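Hi everyone,

Forwarding the result from last night's run.
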Amino acid sequence: MIEAQRRMAAGDLGFIEEPALVEFVRTQRWFGGKSREVTHVGVLDAAPMRGGDSPLVDALVEVRYQAGTHDVYQLLIGLRDEAEPDCALGWADGRVAVEALSDPTDARELGRLLADAAHVEAGEGAIDFYLVPGALPPAAPLTARRLGAEQSNSSIVFDEELMLKAYRRLEPGVNPELELLRFLSERGFANIPELVGWYEYSGRLMAATLGIVQRFVRGGIDGWSLALEMLTSGDGDLFLGHAERLGDLTGRMHACLGSEPAEPAFAPEEPSAESLAILSATIEDEVSQLFSALPDSDALAPLRGLEEDVRERLRMLPHAASGGRRIRHHGDYHLGQVLWAGDDWMVLDFEGEPARSMPERRRKRSPLRDAAGMLRSFGYAAAAARQFHGVEPPPMWEERAREAFLEAYLPHVEAARLLPTSRGFTEELLRIFELEKAVYELRYELDHRPDWVGISVAGIVKLLEPAGP
């Protein structure tokens, strides 16, 4: 056995030089520290998933920054005779070390380990694979392919039957997506792809969810693509029925998530004055950071002088939330997070907003925060049809989509007693959460999609207009 193979079989990745790791990590879509100065990248722990001539190691890699902070990322590292340049980490003994989640040939090994419910020792801890009790045990996969170009994680489809989502940036604790999927599955909520299993790391350094496996939904189309397809083909009005059905299942999902008062992690809570004040102050701080860093551009001109108006609207949150309850929720709900499977919607990606910390994503909030995210998404779809496709949506399309969604949604959450004491407070709280979402969107667009900034700006300006009668 050559030296690199022997070292990898023992979980030793010391032959991969730090500059190669730095270069690789910095160029990946899932790396969240592109705007920060990296001072060090190194392997914290590694578990040999396979030995022999084709060794495979699952590694926890630490990235340190100039400010003294750090992140931990998951890399699956294999050794091959040749590889695509964007997967390569460096050469050793005439072979190339590759990142196997970027080039998923070796990722099939994770499917095999799941099928075996395997336990793998690491240097400082261990990785364990779990099957959901009662789930049909998967076979060891024969094929693997990457799914799309995700921003923050990597998804691999096995045999067109199962989908592995490997989390890239790791934080201590159970990932909220796994938590929510297990809760909804156990209570018979059918509008999610079936959870088959997961794998996790535990050890002296941390305990963290590494990934989940779900049934793969063949032939589905995400809600964003479906809405744009219908708008640009002249069938925008046909989408209104889909919006109504989406509102119905969203209401049922929230009612389910608020149905277990005896389970602390999911029990609905009455928001205290203190918690609402903290939330309001947190949002205000986000607004201050955004406005203080706005670049000088024509696209942002409509926002000049509006910071105090935004603050004033957000300060209404404690008043509008009177009587409502906080529950666990999706946390990043929009048309891109739902899949039309031919006859119904499936809800995906329960991680929450990737820019927020794990404690923030696990925090209970009003279910209206999810609803507001979907309402904002209808506005985004209409604006994108105009700006990028030159198509004018049918008259009042956004307003009618909102109405269809809310008319189907509100009865479920009202019956579950999750909303404020009056419909007027509910409408005000929705507008506040839409404004919070629009501010988050603007920050995202400034960092990642400057051509979309105008859509976020227009959304903020519109939400600051007086509410209709």
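Residues 423-448 form the longest helix (26 residues).

Cheers,
N.
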